[in-house]
What does this fold into?
Amino acid sequence: MIHDLYETISRRRDVRGQFTGAPVPGDVLDRILMAAHEAPSVGLSQPWDFILVRDRELRQTFHRHVHTERETFAATLDGDAARRFARIKIDGILESTLSVVVTYDAARGGPAVLGRHAIADAGLYSVCLAIQNLWLAATAEGLGVGWVSFYREDFLRGLLAIPGSVRPVAWLCLGPVSHLEEVPDLERHGWRRRRPLQLALHADRWGG
Amino acid sequence: MIHDLYETISRRRDVRGQFTGAPVPGDVLDRILMAAHEAPSVGLSQPWDFILVRDRELRQTFHRHVHTERETFAATLDGDAARRFARIKIDGILESTLSVVVTYDAARGGPAVLGRHAIADAGLYSVCLAIQNLWLAATAEGLGVGWVSFYREDFLRGLLAIPGSVRPVAWLCLGPVSHLEEVPDLERHGWRRRRPLQLALHADRWGG
It folds into this structure.
């Protein structure tokens, strides 16, 4: 049992290029969303929502926006980084089966959310825990997930009629894939390498 | 394999009262930390660090701070909520085997972090994904995790000599437990109930 969890954690990839567009059975999608919904949340506030985006036109509009933002980022890079970035695919919005937009409602469970008075972002953290549950569940089900972050929150709010008080946290592409890559895309394309765990560990104090 | 992941996701609890203080074998701790370290991160920035806090005096000092913050929160509650809150244990800092403080270094992988130019918090999100991997791995290993959030970030920075540019995201108590509760503490104590998943689902647009 333990081995399987570790295998799922290791196999999980941030997918851009391997979506097939094949259907996701309803019961599989239900299990994945329930896994997300069973995440821990500060003060049991469960401040997440999931917008399932299947509409083709909405996805095309978002895709165009993402590619405008890609150009904005590309313009900040120097020659070498720009050349590496040019080879990297940043989304699978149109090829994946559907998208799941995950949002954060800070008012949920308020006004006194247990555990949030000192750390305003604690509710935002909860939403991310739900996203990781979703991602691992999808991986275990043999699906791929790709988190797109080349967008402006206000654009996405407008596109999906998300209230001003609710914050979009992630646009996740979801669906069957031909395969999951062994090595993360960004490492394969020489963008960045994985860091040894030992460099991230400290004993009792920073640097200890 | 899939069933086991879902079982781990469902069994996972935010532990306060069930820590035994028994040792955590080194290889188990290594696997749990590696699971966290294998999380996805924006631009492969891997912006997390893990401070393993075993020192008794540091934990006692933090514990006193947490209980001061508890009083601050309690003072904001009206009679009914205050009575419910009085029964709720908020931390297992002294009873658990060790604590893991997880931090966020926004400068890691910079200045041009792929995928973060439009969403400044994307790096913070990555750290939370690592925390959920850690939490599930610990659960699968039969250990408990308790996320303490009754603290001020600056206090924790000072206590563990964390640089001003690095943000503490979580203080996690970790260790063997007598058992994991079936029902989350806050639900058992009548603080809040779990929300039906259906209320969190939308089709194509908010409210759809």
About this structure: The longest strand of chain A covers residues 166-176.
